[in-house]
Amino acid sequence: MTTTLDLHSHSEASEDSRAPLEAYLNWLKLKRTERPVDGVVLTEHRQFNQEGDYRALEDKFGILVLKASEVETDYGHVLVFGVTDEMTRRFDFANVHLPAQEVIDEVARMGGVAVPCHPGRPNVGLCEHYTHKPPLENVIAVEVLNGGSRRGEDERSEELVRQFGYSAVGGSDSHLVSLIGLCATRFEGEIRTAEDLVRELKSGSYAPVDFRPRRKPVPHAVPVEVK
Amino acid sequence: MSEVTYASVQIGDTLGPQEFYLSKDQVRAYAKATGMWVPRFTDDEAARKEGLPGMITPGNMSLAIMSKLVSDWIGASGARMIRLGTTYRQPVLPDHTLTLQGFITHKSENDRTAEMDVWVESEEGDRLVIGTATVHFPR
Fold first, then answer.
1. Using a CB-CB distance cutoff of 8 angstroms, which residues of chain A are in contact with residue B119?
2. CB-facing half-sphere around the CA of A223: CA atoms within 13 A
3. What percent of chain B is helix, strand and coil (3-state, nearest 5)?
4. Pairwise CA distance, residues A196 & A77, whole Å
5. Residue A223's closest chain B neighbor by CA?
6. Complex ipTM above 0.85?
7. Do residue A27 and residue B11 have CB atoms under 8 angstroms apart?
8. What is the pLDDT of residues A32-67, one digit of tens each?
């Protein structure tokens, strides 16, 4: 049984998003045929919502909701899956200069997986840091499909994957309700919990999936007179 | 087209898309009218000296352009935009065709408001400015 998850999304708990989780789930229900995702992973910026209990919403919409985090490191932004109390005690998630190698190694030791996201993005992506710093060790996957990427960013990420042999995941990086589920990751195994997700990420049996509609070319319109 | 009413609004309804060509002269006119006559908004060469790809559109003008998408959708219905929040992701370069688009994402029965996502998109499909708006429908 396969499981398709949007691995990267931000609800209103992140300071730059106004998207309530319920609106995300309602939107996914509405768009089920276009974006057939089984669940979303909330990756709030620089925090982990330990208390959040979304079971009632999961039941209401029939969509899995998992919790993770997007932290900021000296090699750019990193998604942390399988967050535990031990991790939040070990690292101050609010610190925007976390040491990436320590995050990757310690998260793995504590039973999670750290995945650098949007590596092709200037300043906050792995590719730029690799131009002047040694490559990180023990990276198992990076996000090559990001719904917020600009032209060329995902292509740089793909090149990184080819060069270093990382596994590849996808996520919408949605900060708006209507963008949830546009990019996702299809896993070969069944995922019901954060522990399942970590197990599947370690397995390497997954691929990014792109549900963005093909865009028709926009013609260069005729200039209009300023009124 | 019939006027939008609170009852007629459905989650998933679209705003736009509206395509339009934004000229450099329009941006200069806006910069002049709003007292923002600074090189980055008026002159390609001067903007490049600041490290920009060319002259750019003032953020307030992008905000105004996005608000037009919402106000066009409201039409003469009597509804009122009570909030518009934006995130600027990339510079909006004039002399390009821009697309405005939005979706209704939420309705609140208690305060008779509709929430919507709105954005400005480049010819290549990059979302240059994204935001959300709230529209109130009086009884």
1. 176
2. 11
3. 25, 35, 40
4. 23
5. B21
6. yes
7. yes
8. 999 999 999 999 999 998 888 999 999 999 999 999
Nearest CA in chain A to B123: A218
* CATH superfamily of domain region A3-210: Metal-dependent hydrolases (3.20.20.140)
Candidates A26, A151, A179; nearest CB to B124 = A151
CB-CB: which of B19, B87, B105 is closest to A23? B105
Would you list the domain boundaries of chain A? 3-210
| Residue of chain B minimizing CA distance to A213 | B125
The two beta strands, A39-45 and A64-73, are: parallel
Whether B106 sits inside 8 A of A16 (CB atoms) is no
Residues 6+ apart with CB under 8 A from A155: A120
A151 pLDDT exceeds 90? no
Say if residue A154's pLDDT is above 50. yes
Q: What is the CATH number of domain B14-136?
A: 3.10.129.10
Asked whether residue A112 carries a pLDDT value surpassing 80, the answer given is yes
pLDDT band at A218 (very low <50, low <70, confident <90, very high): low
Q: Which of A175, A179, A221 sits opposite B97 (nearest CB)?
A: A221
Are A23 and B115 in contact (CB < 8 Å)?
Answer: yes
